[in-house]
Task: inverse folding
């Protein structure tokens, strides 16, 4: 067997293969190779196993690269399943207002919130939006993220939403990190449609969704189902149109209130239901039966100073696969640090460390309907993240710190010693 890249002699290689639904139990531990190596050839994994076996069965081709991973942990490249990357401006002043006691809802009612970013994003030039995306992607990559979902949603007109999706297409082409684009034209109702909501729903369903689908700019369609955003009935109209246009579905649901969003996600066979702070037991059962992945965003609740966190333990016990994501955006969670979100999931939502690590690798890949990433197995894409810690638990235990030393994307070293290659 030949390889052009070998990551050799790691303290742990955590494969995340063959995980059960819901709580992973000891399946992660059973899939760990202690003193393991991973070999890659032409962008694919060709070997995962003990370092001694690798030395005897894998030949490094002339000009190949071998990296000593002694005392470190190798994971699949991390997958961030919920981000809002293309935007302009910032909302730092809102952070100060929240610290002074204002709620997210009060800030939005006073002209802040999502619509403030919509105004700034509409006014920005393409070059600035592109540069902002690439900067955020560099930070994400430095934390070990090799694949990320990214949403539009700060345009809220046909032309502006398509422009944001085109920005994402540019960023995906220009950067090594892979982006999975999502249309979120149904983020909030824009001010020009405040008195004619149904007209905006029709615009999204009848014009924006078909245009994005025809241009091949979005794999998924998302709707924010919440009081102050879109009702279940409005969301169903948009999601039905998206599915008819060939898009797969994701939903923001049950974040601020229990509004039946999880049940809608299950009904529509959505790939994911995201947020879920107020999901009901009936919603959990519906998600489990539909096989819809729950994508939890615990850093949002911390950032917004909320006291209710998503019930990860209950979701896992119900048999729901739980993924974690940053929700990187300027208003409710300004961070690209996915491992921090995983640490917070352990501290606030009832997840154990192996569930949380599966939640930033295998589970989010499943929520994005990606079969080639999220696990370390021969034949899979050679996306790997190496962490300078003695045991996988330290990635989350020593929280808020970037332990990622090496990142491999498509078999190429793109982060070396923590520096962009």
Result:
């Amino acid at each position: 067997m030949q390889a052009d890249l070998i990551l050799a002699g790691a303290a742990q290689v955590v494969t995340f293969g063959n995980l059960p639904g819901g709580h992973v139990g000891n399946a992660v531990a059973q899939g760990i190779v202690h003193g393991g190596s991973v070999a890659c050839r032409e962008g694919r994994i060709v070997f995962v196993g003990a370092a001694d076996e690798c030395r005897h069965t894998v030949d490094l081709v002339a000009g190949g690269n071998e990296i000593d991973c002694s005392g470190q942990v190798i994971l699949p490249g991390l997958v961030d399943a919920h981000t809002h990357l293309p935007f302009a401006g910032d909302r730092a002043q809102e952070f100060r207002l929240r610290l002074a006691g204002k709620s997210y809802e009060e800030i939005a009612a006073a002209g802040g919130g999502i619509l403030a970013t919509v105004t700034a994003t509409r006014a920005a030039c393409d070059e600035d939006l592109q540069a902002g995306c690439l900067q955020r992607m560099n930070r994400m990559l430095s934390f070990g993220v090799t694949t990320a979902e990214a949403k539009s949603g700060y345009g809220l007109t046909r032309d502006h939403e398509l422009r944001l999706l085109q920005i994402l297409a540019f960023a995906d082409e220009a950067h090594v990190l892979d982006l999975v684009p999502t249309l979120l034209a149904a983020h909030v109702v824009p001010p020009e449609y405040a008195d004619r909501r149904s007209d905006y729903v029709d615009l999204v369903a009848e014009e924006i969704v078909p245009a994005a689908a025809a241009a091949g700019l979005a794999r998924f369609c998302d709707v924010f189902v919440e009081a102050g955003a879109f009702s279940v009935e409005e969301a169903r109209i948009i999601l039905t149109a998206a599915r008819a246009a060939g898009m797969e579905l994701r939903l923001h649901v049950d974040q601020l209130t229990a509004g039946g969003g999880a049940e809608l996600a299950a009904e529509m066979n959505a790939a994911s239901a995201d947020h879920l702070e107020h999901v009901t037991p009936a919603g959990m059962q519906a998600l489990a039966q539909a096989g819809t992945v729950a994508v939890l965003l615990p850093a949002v609740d911390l950032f917004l100073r909320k006291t209710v966190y998503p019930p990860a333990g209950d979701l896992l016990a119900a048999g729901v696969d739980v993924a974690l994501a940053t929700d990187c955006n300027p208003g409710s969670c300004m961070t690209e640090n996915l491992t921090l979100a995983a640490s917070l999931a352990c501290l606030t939502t009832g997840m154990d460390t192996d569930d949380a690590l599966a939640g930033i690798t295998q589970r989010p890949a499943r929520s994005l309907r990606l079969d080639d990433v999220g696990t370390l197995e021969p034949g899979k894409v050679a996306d790997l993240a190496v962490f300078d810690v003695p045991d996988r638990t330290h990635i989350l235990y020593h929280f808020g710190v970037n332990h990622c030393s090496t990142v491999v994307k498509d078999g190429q070293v793109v982060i070396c010693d923590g520096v962009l290659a």
